[in-house]
Amino acid sequence: MKKILLTCSLIVLTVLTTMAQDVTGKWKTIDDETGEAKSIVEIYKQDGKVYGKVVEILNPAKKNATCEECSGADKGKPIQGLVIIKGLEKDGDEYNDGTIMDPNNGKVYKCYIELDGPNKLDVRGYIGFSLLGRTQTWTRVD
C-alpha cells in the first residue's frame, strides 16, 4: 500500500512540476557572436497570446540606444521598453505563429519559442521555413 501511495505521489508531483513550467517571466538574452549577456526580456501573456519586451539593457554604453533601423511606430523608439516578440500562440510544448524583431537591424522574423527545462528558453527566428533561421538559448532570471 505504501509503495502505491508513494508512486502516485511522485506521479502527481511530476505532473504538477511540468505544468508549472511556463515561458512567462524574465529571460537573459545572450549575443550569438560574443557569448555576452545583452539584455533582459520579460515574456508575458496578453489576450491569450505571448509577447516579449526588453526591460533592461545590460551594456551600460547601450542603455539609451534607440531602434533607428525599425520601421513603423517602433522607428526611433528606445530599445529598452520595446516589444520585440509579438503574437505567439501555444501549440503543444512550443509557442509559434508570431514574430520577433531584432532591434539591432530592425528586421522582423517569424518566431517560435520552447522551454528546454525550467530555466532555458530556445528562441528561434526564421524567414520562410524554420530551417532557415537561428536559435538562441535564453536563461531565466530570478
UniProtKB/TrEMBL annotation:
The residue range of the signal peptide is: 1-20
By what name is this protein known? DUF2147 domain-containing protein
Q: Does the keyword Manganese apply?
A: no
Q: Which UniProt keywords apply?
A: Signal
Please list the residue ranges annotated as the DUF2147 domain. Answer: 25-140
Q: Which Pfam families does the record associate with it?
A: DUF2147
